Amino acid sequence: MDKFLQLLVGGIALGSIYALVALGFVVVYTATRTFNFSQGGMVLMGAYLTYQYGDDWGAPFVVAVLAAMATMAFGAVLIERVAIRPLVGRPPFVIVLVTLGVLVVIEQVVRSTWTQPALVMTTPWGNDASRFGDVTIRHVDFYTVGVTILLVVGFVWFYRRSRTGLAMRAAALDQEVAAANGVNLGRVTGLAWAIAAILGVVAGVMLTSRGGSALSPGLGFIALRAFPAMILGGFDSTSGAVAGGLVIGVAEVMAQGYLTQDFLGSGVEEVVPYVLMVIVLLWRPTGFFGSRTVTRV
Amino acid sequence: MTDPASTQAATREAPRRLVPSGRAVAVSVAVAVAALVPVLVESDFWMLVLGTAGIFAIGAIGLHLLTGITGQVSLGHAAFVTIGAYTTAYLGAERGWPLLAFLAAATVFGGLVGLVVGPFALRFRGDYLVVVTLALIFVTTYVVENWESVTGGFNGISANDASTSIGPVDFAELEVFGTTFTRAEGLYYLAWLLVGLVAVIAYNLVRTKPGRAMQAIRDQEIAASVTGVSVARYKVAAFAISSAMAALAGSVQALSARFLSPNDEIGELFLSIRFVAMIVVGGIGSLGGAIVGALLIGPLPELVRELVGVLDFSVPIIDRPLVTDTQADGGIFSSSSFAQLLFGALLIVTLIRYPTGIAGAFNAARRRIAVSSRERRDGGRPDTGDGPPPG
Could you say which of A105, A115, A227 has the minimum Cβ distance to residue B134? Predict the structure, then answer.
């Protein structure tokens, strides 16, 4: 039972990170109706930039994270402007392919900029942990869950209550009608990319400090494991992304804890999110919270 | 033979030829050049590069059928290449199957896996396919790492003992008219023979009823289903054929690489993206484009490594060489990084600026030449409104 609780805590923390990444996917998906594979790149680059500002250039941690967010938000708007907007009106898969290209480019830029093999990010929580009965909780997990709740609540408030959020939802519903009512579609799409990038930076920092604070170029790949979270939740649903993220995170950590090496072999946790996704998709093709689409002929 | 009825019959028969007469010349020239290359090129390195390109071309033609013709994007192509490669290492090297047998087995096995996975992936609309096929990458890597008795696990498996001969013809030491070819040259022939075979299959598939159904699905899925095309069945079939071709490519790749291990490619996902880049740069929907794309993009890492001497010029301001073998040598990019960067950049730039790729540019140029020669003949002014650039 203790082991279960222990794993559950870890799973929820990991799931929160996946939820952030998945939320980033969802925001861009609702704005452009395409998957944004470059989100993995945002996670990766965000973590390295935070290291650069904080550990290398000596900025306090919070300042470093904020600076990384600003940089990535700007970068994301730029990417959207240069690489995505010219493709408006082209088949969705073309945009998907371009975001794949962006992912490759970002990963190589990171690999080439930060060449030292073992960079370690300094975080306020470090490797501290507290014991509650028989369960040990690492402080990073506290912060991860806390920051995720803050960000998700903030995002939902912004999306549901603010005028800009209303414009974003209108554009997601029907681009033409929204544009006819004075919504600046370009700005809405750019904003969606910026939000995704900011969420990505936080996810990157949290993912790095969870994994012992060592930075690795494989981070972008880990972020792709949040894809099933988005699908489980159903593409276009905010709460779905959060729920999907938590389910995937818990499933992954549980698999790692219980389906040990002797039973299903190493690395089984990397497959679990995808297996889970396929099973759920077979049962509910639109995920848990996704809106059913009706195609008109 | 002068009897009008038989002439008519011959005309009606014409479209059934394997290769159309209009392109017959171009195709035979290409085949002749391809056959002569090993005789003219002395360097084993270049033969390896061209052989690799051939291997990629087999896989690219497969992806061309799935993405270019049927309109389904897959990121699982690398998984099928891996499946084909390990099938070859196991059956060919461990079990000692003959060449044709394990080539066929790898192809069939890849196709079967595609047939089993396809319905899962294609039950959902195009959007989902990308992500579900992404799952294939993760699952294949997992299986390769853990199924030690077959794949050798993390230690890898040797494919060196796999046979390279069909009957008396050994591709590892080909001998024709007294000329002996090296293993690289022999595998080049094997790879491009298979490219020819696969290309003929793809070309003829596209012109038959299934091919037209596949294109209908790409262009208007709903309209296709309304006119009686069984969308799901054709999608799964296209996926299976594409997977089989990828596995065939993997099979030859195993012969060329001689040793397989899970840490070969930096993330198999990037191999899949490379295949996508090939058909995009070559021109989506064009068979020739897929082959040309494979020639250009397939061996890019090897080319960059070879051309490092050209690319290591010092970049102003930063004052470091652009590309060196590894970054420890002080370059901004390592050669493998730079090759990946090129894939990514080519993919982005092609999609934005030249959506029809090389094939599109080629066709536009041909049209322009045809128009201007017709005008010279007719004495008219060149019609500038004709043949707008694609995009």
Answer: A227
- Of A220, A268, A227, A257, the C-alpha closest to A244 is A227
3-state secondary structure of B263: coil
> Rounded distance, CA A37 to CA A97, Å?
8
Kindly report, residue by residue over A148-202, the tens digit of the pLDDT.
999 999 999 998 899 988 898 888 888 888 888 888 888 899 999 999 999 999 9
Task: Check if A154 contacts B (Cβ < 8 Å).
Answer: no
- Local structure of residue A132 (DSSP, 8 states): E
Q: 0.90 cut: is pTM over it? A: no
Half-sphere exposure of A272 (CA within 13 A, CB side): 23
In the stretch 143-162 of chain B, residues with CB closer than 8 A to chain A read 145-146
Residue A142 CA to residue A130 CA, distance in Å, equals 10
Q: Cβ(A13)–Cβ(A249) under 8 Å?
A: yes
Q: Residues A30, A165: contact at Cβ < 8 Å?
A: no
A138: β partners? A129
- pLDDT, tens only, B149-184: 777 777 777 777 777 777 677 777 777 766 777 778
DSSP H or E segment with residue B254:
helix B231-257
DSSP class per residue in A227-286: HHHHHHHTSS-HHHHHHHHHHHHHHHHHHHHHS-HHHH-TTHHHHHHHHHHHHHHHH-TT
Give yes or no for B63 touching A (CB within 8 A): no
DSSP calls for A11-35? HHHHHHHHHHHHHHHHHHHHHHSS-
